[in-house]
Design a protein that fits this description.
Blueprint: H1 2-26, H2 32-43, H3 53-58, H4 60-106, H5 109-127, H6 133-157, H7 159-164, H8 180-201, H9 204-224, H10 231-251, H11 260-279, H12 281-287, H13 300-311, H14 316-322, H15 328-350, H16 354-377, H17 382-398, H18 402-410, E1 416-417, E2 447-448
Parallel strand pairs: 1-2
Helix pairs in contact: 5-6, 5-10, 6-8, 6-9, 6-10, 8-9, 9-10, 10-11, 11-13, 11-16, 13-15, 14-15, 15-16
């Protein structure tokens, strides 16, 4: 009887196991656990096969415990996945920071922003009373991209020279942080994009000036630095074009009034560069650049060039006022600024030391933003000029014409005058038209009685 009951229970357990296992596998939420379940049952010393149903049924709680282990393994997998995602995000952030800094240094961003400031000032001066701020932003963005392209190409061509100079050896190309093909691709992309933006949002004249300035800086000024000291004067021309570009972008033309700010930039750059070339003579000599200061051992000719161009800045305020660009206050302010920088140049000329050269360099850094700010603050708007023109036209319209003056003179009643103690005689007419400053008055006639 016990045997029958035991055999019956064993059959019942066998039948239950045959139905429970497929059910457990079907209701398992994650199929990946099945392989783990098989490996656990096969490798555990307490695991049993279907041939031993009693022990297999007793091992049921062990299967429940294995589900907890699987959940912990899943959590570990998720944490490792999150850690790998964080690592990839950090890598992406590092690459973005690395290339961003390389592009910033390759473009000489500070110098490019100064070029953008001069171009924006030229745009405002050429706009008159109404300023198109969208056009101003597009012009500044296009100028920034073209300037970044020019500076990048400059470093591509001078990578070997920069590697020899102390102040430039840590740039992206000499230090190996960026490859030359990568830099060429970057420079070409931003140069084409900047020129296209100026052509679409400004006009073809501004785009042509930008493209010509890019060519002049990258393919004329840059190789000329290793050939002849005249490169400084060519570089001054390059620096004078951006404000002309801004004026052309705003007005669509180039007039005589547009030459004030370019002239100021041209004359300003020479003392600025001469001071820098004097301070960095050793670096320029190590890099193989033919600067003007290297052929001037005493520094006297370098100082005289700087002083002469500082004196050329003196009449610019008077010209701006005379041409109707600014008010009379700018004339005074511009003269004071020019005298201040001329004093530093004269000090450098009399005592050629690094201290006086640095003082002139700092004065040049102060001169340009103050000069441009004065132009913007004291500029004469088109409204004020048009009011003056309208008043002059109205005044001219009020004046009688020459024919009406003659007709009026013919119909003036003749008046008789007597001289005391002298016989009467006719007096010749007195033509007031010949008497300054009233040439428009009618000429009366006098007839004696």
């Amino acid at each position: 009887m016990w045997r029958n009951s035991l055999s019956f229970s064993s059959k019942l357990a066998h039948s239950n196991s045959s139905y429970c296992l497929p059910f457990f596998l079907r209701t398992s939420p994650k199929p990946s656990y099945h392989a783990l379940l098989g490996r656990s049952n096969s490798t555990s010393p307490e695991s049993t096969s279907v041939a031993d149903p009693v022990k297999w049924s007793e091992s049921g709680p062990g299967i429940v415990n294995f589900g907890a282990h699987a959940a912990s393994a899943s959590a570990a997998d998720l944490s490792s996945l999150a850690a790998s995602s964080m690592g990839k995000a950090k890598d992406v952030a590092y690459l973005a920071k690395h290339y961003g800094r390389c592009y910033w240094e390759l473009s000489k961003a500070r110098l490019s922003m100064l070029v953008v400031a001069t171009s924006g000032t030229g745009y405002i001066l050429g706009s008159g009373i109404s300023i198109d701020y969208l056009g101003l932003c597009c012009t500044c963005a296009g100028t920034m991209m073209v300037a970044a392209s020019a500076n990048s190409l400059n470093q591509v061509f001078e990578v070997n020279n920069d590697a020899k100079m102390k102040r430039t050896r840590h740039r992206p190309l000499p230090s190996g942080r960026l490859t030359v093909p990568h830099a060429i691709t970057w420079a070409s992309s931003v140069g084409v994009a900047g020129t296209a933006l100026l052509a679409c949002k400004a006009n073809m004249l501004a785009a042509g000036l930008a493209a010509s300035n890019l060519f002049l800086y990258a393919f004329v000024y840059t190789p000329l630095k290793q050939i002849h000291p005249v490169n400084t004067w060519v570089g001054a021309i390059v620096g004078a074009i951006p404000p002309l570009l801004g004026w052309a972008a705003a007005s669509g033309q180039i007039s005589l009034n547009a030459m004030i700010l370019p002239a100021a930039l041209y004359f300003w750059q020479l003392p600025h560069f001469m001071a820098l070339a004097y301070l960095c003579r050793k670096d320029y000599a190590d890099g193989g650049f033919r600067m003007f200061s290297l052929a001037d051992a005493s520094g006297l000719r370098t100082a005289l060039v700087a002083l002469r161009n500082c004196l050329y800045l003196l009449p610019l305020g008077y010209l701006a006022y005379d041409w109707g660009i600014t008010s009379g206050w700018f004339c005074i302010e511009s003269t004071i600024l020019a005298l201040a920088i001329s004093c530093t140049a004269a000090s450098f000329c009399m005592n050629r030391t690094a201290k006086t050269a640095r003082r002139m360099f700092h004065a040049s850094l102060l001169y340009l933003p103050v000069f441009m700010s004065g132009l913007l603050v004291h500029r004469q708007s088109d409204n004020e000029q048009s009011v003056l023109v309208e008043k002059s036209h109205k005044f001219v319209e009020l004046l009688p014409s020459l024919e009406s003056i003659e007709d009026y003179a013919e119909h003036i009643p003749q008046r008789k005058y007597k001289r005391d103690g002298v016989g009467s005689q006719a007096r010749p007419p007195v033509a007031y038209a010949s008497v300054a400053p009233f040439p428009f008055l009618p000429a009366p006639a006098y007839v004696s009685s």
